[in-house]
Amino acid sequence: EVQLVESGGGLVQTGESLRLSCVASGFTYTDYALGWFRQAPGKGQEAVACIDTTNGRTYYDDSVKGRFIISGDNGKNTVSLQMTSPDPGDTAVYYCVGRSEVLLLHKLWLNPSQWDFWGQGIQVTVSS
User: Fold this and answer.
1) How far apart are CA 5 and CA 120, in angstroms?
2) What is the rounded distance in angstroms from the CA atom of residue 25 to the CA atom of residue 124?
3) CB neighbours of residue 51 within 10 Å
4) CA–CA distance, 3 with 117 (Å, rounded to integer)
5) How do 3-7 and 18-25 pair as beta strands?
6) Pick from 68, 91, 94: which is nearest to 81 by CA?
7) DSSP assignment of 20-75, as one string?
8) Phi and psi at residue 87, to the nearest 5°
9) Is the pLDDT of residue 26 over 80?
10) Rounded to an integer, what distance in angstroms lies between the CA atom of residue 27 and that of residue 103?
11) For residues 16 and 67, what is the distance between their CA atoms, to the nearest angstrom?
């Protein structure tokens, strides 16, 4: 059974860095991707970033490009999201996601239905 467990959320002030981490257990796929989505109150699920674990290629939504950095450790099946210069617009529940293949990842990653596994979510609140 695949499980994704997030950690590192909380309350920070605007501009204060925060790091989210996710451990993926039960992940036995050879080629897979890990990433992050978020959902703010009253809004839909929004793709944040993802990483292709086969080649380390990363993808970012324009809203976080240049501010957030995603990284992965294949040996430990972990993925992290370093959030620098967050602002109140980044306040949301953040979900770690996993996909069991990387085919067409660059086209499909923004669609939440393309991700096979989801964590429980962790709250991130950025105060002004």
Assistant:
1) 7
2) 23
3) 25
4) 8
5) antiparallel
6) 68
7) EEEEEES---SS-EEEEEEE-TTS-EEEEEEEETTT--EEE-TTTTTTEEEEEEGG
8) -130, 170
9) yes
10) 17
11) 12
- Which H or E element spans position 113? none
Place of tokens 């499980």: 3
pLDDT in tens, 46-76: 999 999 999 999 999 999 999 999 999 877 7
Residue 29: its pLDDT value, please?
82
- CB-based contact 12:71 (threshold 8 Å): no
Q: Phi/psi of residue 72, each to 5°?
A: -135, 155
128 pLDDT more than 80: yes
**For the chain, what percent of residues have pLDDT higher than 70?**
100
Query: Do the Cβ atoms of 41 and 22 come closer than 8 Å?
Result: no
